[in-house]
Fold these 2 entries.
Entry 1:
Amino acid sequence: MQIQRLVDLEDYEFDTLLVTYNHKNRLSIELGKVSEIFNVLTEDGLVGGSKVYGLRGKDFSYQGQPYYNLIFIGIPENASPRKYQLQFGAAVKEARKLKGRNLLMTAIGDDVSFWLSSAMKGILLGDYTFDKYHFEKEERPEINLGILTGVDQASFKKEVQYSRMLAESVILARDLVNEPANIMTPAALADAARAVCEKNNIKFSVLEKEDCEAMGMNSFLSVAKGSKQPPKFIVMEYNGRATDDEKIALVGKGICFDSGGYNLKPDKAMKGMHGDMGGAAAVIGAIGAIAQAKLGINVTAIVPACENMVSGKAAKPGDIVQSMNGKYIEVVNTDAEGRMALVDAITYAIRQCNATTVIDVATLTGACVVALGDRYTGVFSNSDDLTAKLVQASIIAGENIWRLPLGGDEYAELNKSSVADIANCGTKCGAIAAARFLAEFVERKPWIHMDIAGSSESDADTQIYAEGGTGAAVMTLYELVKIMEKPYKSY
């Protein structure tokens, strides 16, 4: 998608005009014809509030130029960055329906810097599609976006670069999640991570099965035992400030397919399990953006990648394994495998990479989906200060998060085992039990767990989403790292 700054319409022929309106039905473009159409649509209930509505006409014109499509975009009072993303994402989908190719919008006023990048991200993400495996592809001409604005060229260019960088990082994560499991194997995921590192000057390494065995990663390896696909322990190290002792570890669950193991999933739950590496996709996308922006901070992304399959070698319910941390884990449920992989990755981050802060991202529990649905990411943390930064980052990024409790002493027995130090699965409070299990391995480091089991996937083509992977958490992770950067820089 081409995005260009316009000061007049002399060199830009457009076919689709985007017009926003607020809670008082004030239009961003006050023209007689546009206002008349808007008033008629209001009476019919087609616009108003937060509705996005497009129509095709024959005699539309703006500043002497004819156009064919008119799209009204409702922007509520005090709209958040997320709302701008959602609304403009919906608008670009309307433009596609109307066969629009060259879009025009205005960005004029004192608050342009607040919403412009969110609008551009919304348009870029809303136009995403994954049709790689369609033999007969639907024709999708490139969409161009012209923005009529008083924002100076240098500032505008910066906003476009920032918006495109984050949108492309989210799209990378979506592509990784949307690949089927026969393509996106642990080895293929490692190759994708390597490509990001080579492009952005990030140090890359992979620990093979033998390396993991030598380091005592028995918890991670217990998950991989049942598959013919060899596990890959992926490490991506970005040193934006080599003299700083602080280092953030982004740990992403990389289960490339989750059958549930011997606690086999039912058929309906098996669908979509190629996307159980959404956390891995998120940290790969995020560290690519962090390096591309040259943030002055040290960040390491770690991905324990494997498959959870059934075979004569697979882990069995009741097995006991010793983690890299040293703690013995009773495998109560082989379908609680993500946390088994994550704890060795967390230990590696702390003991081998000297991480001072740990954030893990994982499609971890169905219980979190029950609690929060598919538009919110569940967050658990042992640090109020770090969580406050994450909340700020999520608002800027336009992604919904909701903090859930670890439960303190009242839930201390959730993962109790009579035969080992800890059980990998509790009998209740599924999302909390999983988070508390991870918390046992963070060694008192400031830590956040993001459960993206619901938010990592969309079942509908709507707003900024397409059916499939959403790229959840990529933008929030980027904004969090940017907030934690010292000194704070704009991008």
Note: The chain has a mean pLDDT of 95.
Entry 2:
Amino acid sequence: MDKLTLIQPDDWHLHVRNGEMLKAVIAHTASQFARAIIMPNLKPPVTTVEQALNYRSDIVQALPNHTSFNPLMTLYLTDTTSKDDVKKAAVSEHIHAFKLYPAGATTNSDSGVSNPKAIYPILETMEQVDIPLLIHGEVTDNECDIFDREKIFVESSLNDIVQNFPNLRIVVEHVTTKEAVDFVLASPNKVAATITPQHLLFNRNAILAGGIRPHYYCLPIIKREHHRQALLKAATSGNPKFFLGTDSAPHLSGAKENSCGCAGCYSAYAALELYAEAFEQVNALDKLEGFASFFGADFYQLPRNTKTITLQKQNWTIPDNYIVDNETITPLKAGEVLNWKLIN
């Protein structure tokens, strides 16, 4: 196969930041995807409908001319989120979910939820108004091994949330372990998961073997090979519980290349090409369209896109960096060769 035409996909988990960073990265996503779920972990976080609509306006203004890209906004759950906040979000045409960050779990998550059980009244309201809950599924106990934090969260918090709120639509974001995959498979159809390109393509050797490679460092951290294989099997299975969410997370190169580098991989520049590379590894390119274009839209109860995009089998070299206001972002796999290229 040397060409692959798909219904235009959507990205169901995306960071675009704000300011000059937003202006530098948004065109990459808009060139590939029709829509994207926009993460709310700015500084300060996006916690109200008004803030989300203002942020959406900033994104739209930063888009290239003649693009129809639609940013789908989310609100950041905190310990003080109210039922009225949920009801107001549910009637806004531009707000599509709430995001639960355990406090301290990842970038700009300090304002997150300190105890999931404490927000159960809010989750009950979300269930009633049918607005999805997106979960960064990791515990934050410093004594818990970083490679076990997702597994422990599934056991200690996620299972209880699903049992207590059986009609709440839940997306377990960027799953990274076999345990999380198995949990989603065993859960009701209201529970789904996104999977990133880096977790499909790499195991933890990419970060640590032969030297520390900070641009492969993300949270949840990349795991062992048997977890990668479980993710590949889920993504390419045709099961509608699993769909595309890049978690593309731009940081200035200097913020990652230091003694305490930021978590996040920048993949938006070639997200579909990276996914195609992963699916091709297991001879499953025929499964890419469902994963990328159909299952997420169905879960979010949005119409499927109708336009198409085409990938061509073509070797090209990934740039070493992209410029942001006289500084740089280093993309995932910088300087390496990809063998698929978006051509329209």
Note: The chain is about 35% helix and 20% strand.
